[in-house]
Amino acid sequence: MRKNLIRMLLGAVILITSAGAGYLLSSRLGPEVLRLEAERQLAKVMRGRVSIERAKLRVGWGLRIEGETIRVYPSPSGPGLSARHATATIDAVALVRGRFRLRSLYVEGLHMEIERSVSDRWSPKPVAHLDTRGRARDPADLEHKLDLLKVFEKTARVLLAKPLIANHMEIRNASVRMVDRHVRGLRTQPLELRIEGIDGTLAHRWLPRGGELSVRGTLVDPARNRIPLEISGRRRGDGHMSLTVAGTGFHLASVGDYVQPQDPESRRLRAVDALAAGATRPFEGLISGVVSYELLSEEHGVLEIDAILKELVAAVPRGNELLPIRSANAKLRGRLEQHPGRLRLPKLEFRGNDVAVELSATLERPLRASSTADLALDLYGAGLDEVKSVISALPESDRESLLRLADRVESGNIVRIGGKGSARISLWRQLLGAELRTLPRGFVIGAQIADVTVGTGPGGRITGLSALLEWSGDRIRFHDAHARYNEARLPILDLELVGVSHLFEGPAASRALVATPEPIPGLPHFLDLVSGSGGEAPAPPILLEVDFLDHPALRWPLRGAKLLIQPEKDGRRISVTRGSWAGAPIRGQVLWRRSPENRVEVTLEASPPSSGTSLPLGAAPTPETASHAASHDPEAPRLPSRWAAGEFQIASLEGSRLPAASIAGAFAMDGSLLVLSGVRAPLTPRGWLAGGAAVGLSEGATLPIDLEFDIKEGDATALTEALGFPDDFASGTILARGKLAGRVTPGASVLSVLEGFADIEAHDGEVRQSVPLVSAIAHATEGWNPLAASSALRYESIEMRLYFDHGRIHAEGFRLDGPMRVYCAGDFDVARPGRAVQAEIGIFILRHMDRLLGKIPLVNNLIPGGKEKGLFGVYFEAKGTIEEPKLSALALRSLTDGAPLPDLIKAPFSAIREFLESQSEAAAAPADDPLGEAMEEARRQLEEGY
Known about the structure:
Largest sheet: 41 strands, mixed
Low-confidence stretches: 1-20, 612-632, 782-787, 852-856, 858-871, 894-932, 941-946
Number of strands: 41
Distance between the termini: 162 Å
Strand content: over 45%
């Protein structure tokens, strides 16, 4: 009740005060005086001349002034601001206190004329006041680049910060006409835009404190297209203000003049020949969207745009060139933050049908030519033509290098390409003006590519290439590159190359690939095989002296390179200590990992080519390698399919199956075939190995191998152990030669896959009886063999030819000479399951008697076999397994190999028979020895025959 009473009293006071003020004013002022007073008061508020044709005062629930035909800012061409009718409500309380203030203002038929002169002067005064640009500028001061932000800021402050004329303003059926004579220079027809049918309100509240702006109208462009516009604003009690402009279907061509060059020379050309120097930069399409500005604090403003574009045709200038932009449908979003110490663009995003652009930047304030600017620009979904256009916009040296890198790209998807960097604004301006030869220091160009096809030469293609690329200065990085070469998967590549430009400084011939290699997935398995990978001892390093290597995975030929291949965990490290790549000297390293995925990490540095000098191909050959080096001529003409050649050396083979201190030779890659020639290895503890091989590398872990070998003065113990025989199987000196072929798999038994032959000779050694078969032979002849009780079977010489057939060895012509003679022919499964034996063995003993009788010419001539085999012997058949052989005597085989003896020579055998009987009594065979029974049967047959 009390509150209502207070309100009634307050209303009565206001009413009485208003009536009294109206009476005083009407009694003291006539209509003319009222008009003059209104003009004077409005002139103070509008800061310009005001004329009111007629004015009158009305008294009601307040004081109202009505005026007609109001004109403000008069000029020779007409008033800048005019209205047909206006009604203002006077603040009576302020009037009593001696101040003239309007509580509300209603304007109908408002019209505003905005002009920009050829000399770049704006009128009327309110618009000139919004133009924050100074007339005299320091060329290094770039703050005027923020004029658009300042216009939004001042507009928000003028309209929303405090009441402009009245606390509440309302306009109806207003219009604005803008004529810009500056943007078109001295053209006959200036640019003209109109806004018609404007209705709006601007209200300021005291409780709660704030303000609101709402305006609607229709924009009419020079082509008479009508575009709906909405402007809204808001101010909160904490000082936060926002201003938003929204429009639909605005034709960009209407403001196309504003994207044309406005420098003095371009304006001069338009003034001389307006037609010839017309719109050099296309700017067409329709835009619909919202532009908003927020004033968050005194010096913190944020400008945002969210728009949709249709049928866009535009161009981005770059020096004297234009980069075209076309899109049927596109979205434009961005946010620009203005801070006291910096200007920040978190992201400006443009997305078309196929292409998207993202720009972010941070600029140091105040904006000066020396201020630092951090920029990042990314282009998504560009085609090869667009990418080449972007590359063409780079400085000369970087442009040439990148274009040459991309010269063989045939097709593919450019997921993203962009750049980022930090430099002074003056340097960025030079870059955009094509005034730099190289990119600013620290500038990085990045790209993400997918499904790219690259031609590598005759018949060769890299397909399905996807990778992340980064270019910085003269450095390029490839990361996570997946690709196939002629449908064969290549290892995943991570590459960092410094000095890219040096790769293009040499003659074009140094970058030409002429061979067409085939896939070689078996290379890592071959390296495992020759280096002994997987054993307890570490794999040895391999030194390569590469004469030439022309593989498309390298992009350019490699010449005169020295590579050291060292084992690493799950891979290998390749150190490039010298070489010439695309004619430029290089050095670096390659890390090849095979687990958890087949990946190659490459770090290389290229140097400027040295004119008139050639890189050495390697060190002078040592006496040990002279024989194979003489047959390897790096300058000799090569086959079209041969894409690599050079020399190799494994300095240490410790831990390898091959009993050699080192191995060296020449290599060549012919298609997918690795050819090793002139191979020579000093064996341990003595001897030499020489030979050559051809290895197929096209089948992954399966390696087709064809090899020849020649062993001289080799150690029998070391060589037999290397072939998989038991330890200490034999001793002596071995000479061997042969040819073998097969399909080898690392980790599997070599003998199980090889086929071919080997001629073997051995001298002055022993065969250990710890070997089951040899032990069985020795025990079978116990009592006959003076060495049967010995732990080893000595020999003076061994000769044999062995035929290898995938794990089975066929012995032919085996002959062992020593205190006893052994002949053998048969098959041995050394690598197959069961390790079966099927052989015939002939043993001839009492060679001392043979030597004694052999000195008697008559006996030597009459006794068959005495000269070649021995005087006494027996044949056995060996069956079973190598671990548990079973021997049985062959009853039908005699000492003369089954040949009948003539009567003429039967007599001398009586003495022999007596000798055999005495030997039998002196050393009888054990009762449980079946071989002893076989020997007794042999003696019985001898007695019956003689």
